[in-house]
Amino acid sequence: MNRAGVVRWPEDVAEAYRTAGCWLGRPLGSWLWEWADRWGDRTAVVDGEQRLNYRELAERADGLAEGLAGLGLGHGDTVLVQLPNCWEFVAVTLACFRLGVAPVMMLPPHREYELTSIGAHVDAKAVIVPGVWKGYDHQELAHRVAAALPSRARVLVAGGEVQPDSVDLRDLIKTGGAALRRRWLDERAPSASDVALFLLSGGTTGVPKVISRTHDDYEYNLRRVARACRFDEDTVYLTVLPAGHNFPLANPGILGALASGGRAVLLPSPRPEAVFEAIEAEGVTATSAVPAVVLKWMEAAAASTRDLSSLQYVHVGGSVLSPEVAARIGPSLGCRLQQVYGMAEGLICYTPADASAEISFATQGSPVSPFDELLVVGPDGLAVPPGEVGELLTRGPYTPRGYFGVPEQNLVSFTPDGWFRTGDLVRLTPEGHVVVCGRVKDLINRAGEKISAGEIETLVQELPQVAEVAAVPAPDLDVGERVCLFVRLHPGCHLTLTAIAEAFRTRGVAAFKTPELLYILDELPHTPVGKPDKKALRTLLPAAHPFAA
Ligand code: OOB
To answer: Probe ligand 1: pick from 349, 450, 479, max atoms within 8 Å of CB?
Structure first.
């Protein structure tokens, strides 16, 4: 693949990160056998009945890497990975790291619209999906996507009935001769400065932006976060959020657990009863969730008879958590809370594992690396006085200097000297902890899923009835925010939410983006430059916000 779209750190900065010991110069796949040699018989991954120890995991990942190579995939290629939380997800990810193939971490609810636009953007050579998942045929989806991609991508299927024109992922896993294969793959290892994987950003433009993460930067990221969360050989980490999201993948998540000699338990959904059962059965010590999910667990825990006593930490982040709810998490679930403020673009902040109530309930923590740089600026772009609210800008050893392949967008999202504009409004406490106070970026955060208002508006504008549209977040007790539309219609036209939902479905848009509230107005209020005035529109909505501080 053409990796020309990757924005690299300036060489002097990269050298400083190497000298400081942030970047170790080792590709992520090179750790696999080190883990296996050290913790071979210990359980690494649990997926229902399927349990893999470290040696088995390394053998499967290597076997799969050989199978992928047999399909012609290699250094610099990119594949779309849309798998639920299952052992194959872990094997595919590690196999890609071994081979130097970069997986793009799609989420299970993504559909044709997202897969096709991103697949084309990264020139994906394969689409890796489950068969039928939650009643939806991903194999069919993958074939439609593959047919639309310039490279005639292969379709690889994990589980279920595999069509003759798809490749059965499990058949690809070569067995026997592990030592030879290990050497063969070691000799072809990618460079540590190469792209290890692509993550998706919720983004604020039409199409979600894609973030390239190198082996060096991602390894450092997960090492620092695993340390902040005290992961070790006794860690049993439960994964309930979609594994391809940066939070459960490596913060510290699955990769953090594996790099620490712990165990990653994979659950396909965050349903409280299944979660409590898994905690009891596996002796789970840590898990992570967005506030909306934790609230459900808290409600259900009171009535549950499951033994949750093994649970030590729950990591909560992705959207705003109110201090009141934060204070109730520990007593409800019998564990400590660590708040996390993070982003696929890099920066991760965590409240310390042993933080006081004051810090762990009312702040979103401090950066996990001493090399993370934070700058809080006002609308004029200048630093605000200490303790005041402003937009957070950040740079650091695991915060790339640009999105992949969108130079014009990068001029907006990054400053000329490489600071990433997070779009989040924060203040810093005197001790350096971040408190998230709001945001300036135009998106809707629905239970941690980031939905670009601009993308929704573009889709709604395509409807013939629509003259003008604005998408804004509507506060909501269950999911934090829902997509709310304010629409002006052409004369004599009608529009309903059902019609919009149908149009989105037909267009192949992920269901979580479907607008849930609709206001039809004769006129939208406008700002002086003539754009819909979203501030004014938001005042038309009910004010109660469940998570707001
Ligand atoms: C995580 O990553 P993304 O890329 O899905 O979303 C990042 C955005 C942030 O810019 C911020 O707007 C919001 O999500 N956010 C929070 C938050 N944590 C993230 N807003 C308020 N309070 C928080 N604690 O969401 C993510 C990635 C890695 C670890 C954790 C979360």
So the answer is: 450
Reported as a single tens digit per residue, the pLDDT across 367-412 is 999 999 999 999 999 999 999 999 999 999 999 999 999 999 999 9
Q: How far is the CA of 491 from the centre of ligand 1 (A)?
A: 41
- Length of the chain equals 549
Q: Whose CA is nearest to atom 25 of ligand 1?
A: 318
Q: How far is the CA of 210 from the centre of ligand 1 (A)?
A: 16
Q: In angstroms, what CA-CA distances link 456 with 165, 411, 517, 536, 538?
A: 34, 23, 13, 19, 17
Helices (H), 284-322: 291-301
Round to the nearest angstrom and report the end-to-end CA distance of the chain: 45
Three-class DSSP category at 508: coil
Q: Which residues line ligand 1 (CB under 6 A)?
A: 201-202, 246-247, 251, 317-320, 339-344, 348, 364, 422, 424, 436, 439, 448, 450
499-513 pLDDT, tens digit per residue, is 999 999 999 999 999
Q: What is the pLDDT confidence band of residue 464, given thresholds at 50, 70 and 90?
A: very high
What are the start-end ranges of the H helices in 439-524? 453-461, 497-507
Whether residue 549 contacts residue 480, with contact meaning beta carbons closer than 8 Å, is answered with: no
Mutate to test the pocket of ligand 1, among 424, 425, 547 (most ligand atoms within 8 A of CB): 424
**With 70 as the cut, is the pLDDT of residue 546 above it?**
no
Which residue's CA lies nearest to atom 19 of ligand 1?
318
pTM assigned to the model: 0.96
In degrees rounded to 5, what are phi and psi of residue 346? 140, -95
Q: How is residue 368 written in tokens?
A: 């996990």
